[in-house]
Amino acid sequence: MKVAILSDIHGNSAALQTVTAHIDAWQPDHVIVNGDVVNRGPDSAGCWQFIQARQARHGWRVLGGNHEMYVCKHTRPTPDPEHRGIRADINQNSRWTYKQLDGEIAALAQLPATAVLTAPDGSRLWTTHASIRSNSDGIYPASDDDDVARQIAPATAVFVTSHIHVAYTRQVNGTLLVNTGSAGQLCDGDSRASYAQVTWQKGQWHAKIVRLAYDWAATDRAFHDSGFLAETGPVAWLIYLEWKTAVPLLPAWRAAYFDAVVAGHIPLERSVTDFLHKHGLSLA
Ligand SMILES: [Mn+2]
Q1: Which domains, and CATH codes, for the chain?
Q2: What region, left, alpha or beta, does residue 11 occupy, with left being phi > 0 and alpha being psi -120 to 50 degrees?
Q3: What does the DSSP assignment read for 110-163?
Q4: Which of 101, 113, 181, 227 is such that its CA lies 20 to 30 A from the CA of 13?
Q5: What whole-number distance in Å separates Cα of residue 151 and Cα of residue 137?
Q6: How far apart, in whole angstroms, are the C-alpha atoms of residue 276 and residue 284?
Q7: What is the whole-number distance in angstroms between the Cα of residue 191 and the centre of ligand 1?
Q8: CA gap 46, 49 in Å, rounded
């Protein structure tokens, strides 16, 4: 049995095309999309359409991630606190994505959280966006074994996670733990797309991470031409540069500035320009 698991496409069509071509050539028995098809990128609608077609015609299984949830939250008639005032400015890009996905929100909201495949010996491969506890509870390469055991309980032979955009495989108390990384926006210092190949062969599970260069210039153009950079506020600059550098800038900005911005001590735009200046980054 051959299983391909991709995730965290984040509206990056060029990366999705490259990963899909590689998966097609590998000819897996199952393909699982482990959440975050949409948001934080220039072409959420195109990626969602493509994934839906693959689901309908090729039986791909599609799971929801935290970003599908963020986009769906915009349907609520009374905006929750995350979508009022300054927090609305910070979260502008999920609103932009929501508008692009008009008519698709019900389908996004209904995506399942988990896929389970069983080998002939009864051992199981469990796939979910982050952890058993929540779709934003990241499992890191250096997370303590005991913490991971709680995040993946009850233990299965293979546990496939994503969410943090860092690709790796490791063993945790007899479980083969696999992080798919991200098709569209890496955070592990390597800007190539990643996905996971998991196989059941001769009575054993194996896992491998595949890394692929893709048409970065096309994605760069899409960030500019789609209006993503111009229309979704300063946080979009961080997202764009995170995509470009494969370094997790958004969490670093959040840790340093989020509370001050929400408290009104510094305007959002200046917090981002200060942050970029301190890190020697610019949009040009
Ligand atoms: Mn993601």
Answers
A1: 2-212 (3.60.21.10), 229-278 (no CATH)
A2: left
A3: T--SEEEEE-TTS-EEEEESS-SS-TT----TT--HHHHHHHHPSP-SEEEE-S
A4: 113
A5: 8
A6: 12
A7: 14
A8: 5
pTM of the shown model: 0.96
- Give the tens place of pLDDT for each residue, 44-68: 999 999 999 999 999 999 999 999 9
Prior bond of 154 cis (ω within 30°): yes
Q: Which residues, listed in sequence order, are joined to residue 189 by a DSSP beta bridge?
A: none
> What is the predicted pLDDT for the residue at 85?
85
Fill in the amino acid letter for 45.
Answer: A
Distance 70 CA to ligand 1 centre (A): 11
Rounded CA-CA distance 168/187 in Å is 12
Residue with tokens 């506890």: 133
Q: What are φ and ψ of residue 253, in 5° steps?
A: -65, -45
**β-strand 158-161 against 167-172: which pairing, if any?**
unpaired
Taking ligand 1, which is a single-atom ion, which protein residues have CB atoms under 5 Å away? 8, 36
